[in-house]
Amino acid sequence: MNIDTVLSDALDRVVDPISGKGLLSGGRASPPRISEGAVSVVVDVTGLSTGARETIEAQVKASLMSVAGVDSVRVALTAEKRGRKIIAIGSGKGGVGKSTLSANLAVALRKAGKKVGLVDADIYGPSQARLLGTEGIRPTAEGQKMDPVLSPHGIPMLSMAQLVKPGQAIAWRGPMAANALGQLIDAEWGDTELLLLDLPPGTGDVQLTMVQKYKPVGALIVSTPQDLALMDATRAIDFFNQAHVPIIGLVENMAGYECPHCGEVSDPFGQGGAQAAAMSMELPFLGRVPLDIGIRTASDAGTPPALADDDKTFAPIAQKLLDWLNPAKPASF
Ligand SMILES: Nc1ncnc2c1ncn2[C@@H]1O[C@H](COP(=O)(O)OP(=O)(O)OP(=O)(O)O)[C@@H](O)[C@H]1O
């Protein structure tokens, strides 16, 4: 057998110890070259974590070194820089349901087949660990980078709350907060295609640093129907306009309350305000989420209601987001 075939066979023996499947299938490795006992090979490690990359490199080296006549092995790792898209989710003020929407949107996008991750950048009230059922799990770090925590619903996530002790008030300001948030975004996100960024409410320095540095492809604004919230939402829209981040659209949350006893629908915060505001600003209206105790209890229990098979609230909003991202090829549910 010629040496090239022997070397290729050695690469075929690089398998995942658990599944037994070849780790270099699908053209991950170039044909190995040998010159005077020195072998070189290029391995594509796109989408793999730092740990998985190190494991593959070590296994490739060991397997090729076992071939008679090989004195040294050089493995070059390459990774295609994926066009990961960051979507900012913002609101002019706190408490309008931005985090609830972000968590449910992440679930709905995953159900639509997207590889989606979530960064909880809300330094004033990080709540994603609770919403996504990852409370108490600390992220690990490989080298310089953090590894996101995987939620039980398959969503990798990182939260400011995971960087500090539970319940500790986060009183970071300015550059310190922006630095910590940067670590969350620059973490080892693997093959995540869409990264939802649950921003702190408001339009201050931290938000500005984030959008300038990480350039989200678009921003989604959450508002309640109240006038005050809408005035704040308008400020958030101005903020993204000034930062040259396109607005994907507006979501109206806590719109219409259906009484669980008599079924009567009332509108404690008014109705249609966000839709009217979106129209007057010529912005897309992405949908309305009702004020529903079930949304609060399910979300607070770490089981986002978007998980339900018959979810008709969050799936259409996720669909509109996907259509905005890819107008030529609307994804379907
Ligand atoms: N549509 C809804 N129906 C019922 N309760 C809701 C709804 N949306 C959000 N809530 C509840 O309102 C509270 C605030 O929501 P959430 O934490 O998502 O808001 P936020 O805008 O992220 O707030 P903050 O900016 O303070 O973090 C939570 O208790 C949440 O469960």
General description of the model:
Helix content is 33%, strand content 21%. Strands 4, 5, 8, 9, 10, 11, 12, 13 and 14 form a 9-stranded mixed sheet that branches. 41% of the residues are buried. It has 333 residues and is α/β, with parallel strands linked by helices. It folds into 2 domains: 3-78, GMP Synthetase, Chain A, domain 3 (2-Layer Sandwich), CATH 3.30.300.130; 85-325, Rossmann fold (3-Layer(aba) Sandwich), CATH 3.40.50.300. Adenosine-5'-triphosphate (ATP) binds at residues 91, 94-100, 122, 125, 127, 201, 253-254, 289, 291-292, 295-296, 299-300.
Summarize the structure.
Helix content is 33%, strand content 21%. By secondary structure, it is an alpha/beta fold.
β-sheet strand percentage: 15-25%
- Assign the CATH architecture of the largest domain: 3-Layer(aba) Sandwich
Question: What's the number of domains?
Answer: 2
Report the mean per-residue pLDDT as an integer: 85
Bound molecules: adenosine-5'-triphosphate
- Count helical runs: 10
Shape label: elongated
Terminal residue distance: 52 Å
Q: Bin the helical content.
A: 25-40%
Q: How are helices and strands ordered from N to C?
A: HEEHEEHEHEEEEHEHEHEEHEHH
The beta-strand count equals: 14
Under CATH, the topology of the largest domain is which? Rossmann fold
CATH class of the largest domain: Alpha Beta
Layout of secondary structure:
Elements: H1 3-12, E1 33-35, E2 38-44, H2 50-65, E3 72-78, E4 85-90, H3 98-111, E5 116-120, H4 128-131, E6 141-142, E7 145-146, E8 149-150, E9 156-159, H5 174-185, E10 194-198, H6 205-214, E11 218-223, H7 227-242, E12 247-258, E13 265-266, H8 273-280, E14 285-291, H9 293-300, H10 314-325
Bound molecules: adenosine-5'-triphosphate (ATP).
